[in-house]
Amino acid sequence: MQEKVSSKIGLWLLAIRPKTLPAAVGPVAVGSAVAFRDGKFTLIPAFCCLLGAVLLQIGVNLANDYFDFKNDIDSEERLGPVRVTQSGLIPPGEVKRGMILCLFLAALVFLYLAVLGGWPIVLIGAASVLAALAYSGGPFPLASNGLGEIFVFIFFGLVAVGGTYLIQAGQLTWVAMLAAVPPGLLITAIMVVNNLRDIDTDRKAGKNTLAVILGRSRTIAEYKLLLLFSYLVPPAMIVTGVAEIYILLPLFTLPMALLLAKRVAQEKGALLNELLAGTAKLSLVYSLLFAVGLVSGTS
Prior knowledge:
Blueprint: H1 2-16, H2 22-37, H3 43-70, H4 92-117, H5 119-136, H6 148-169, H7 174-179, H8 181-197, H9 199-205, H10 210-214, H11 216-239, H12 254-264, H13 272-296
Helix pairs in contact: 2-3, 2-6, 2-13, 3-4, 3-5, 3-6, 4-5, 5-6, 6-8, 8-11, 8-13, 11-12, 12-13
């Protein structure tokens, strides 16, 4: 019995894809750091922002697993991590219920945050939950129509960082939105690697990701540009006088980024799984150093 329970937990861990969860952590850390910098940081709302972001990330992962199976996109030729629905490890109905549960819990968190932040948080929460469903499902799946990267940049960058700051500070500033750009770009880069890896199988399945639309060489260029622009923001913040020298801490990750930029042009297929994990690691480490740089500049 214990082995059966343990096995079931293992399957659900496979389904929620823990390696993708740093995409939820980094933006909340940055948003909270800007709030701390402005003397607005509050612990419980910050924690609730993190909880809501993680639940949304899990919900998106489960929705992607379920809807790609339902739309007959996943196949035996898939190069990425095992999809529990397509492989038959977890019945589709259970994955769907797990998705609904995660999004429902995320909605409850947003309702609590709306009490603190007012109607703008209601709109942000509703838009986030709807976008999580629309990413892979519905009559016009964003991920299947070249809009996945835009979705990721908006909701895992601008909305996640800006919303975290708004809940704690009660307003938005252009500094908070500028600080949202690097996490958004780097998390989008994770999506780009994912779509680059699946470019051939997605094309066969009729899933028109941005990588399918652009082609391999332009997608590689897109990945490199996302990394490049993320490293231009900290110096820009110094030049504009909104941050001190500590904001350059993320530059310590530059060797990691250069290595990834070199590898993306050399590797194909399943080898890109390691590059995807490396990009996720870069996004988290960069965001945490960026957050430390923001906090360290506080007098």
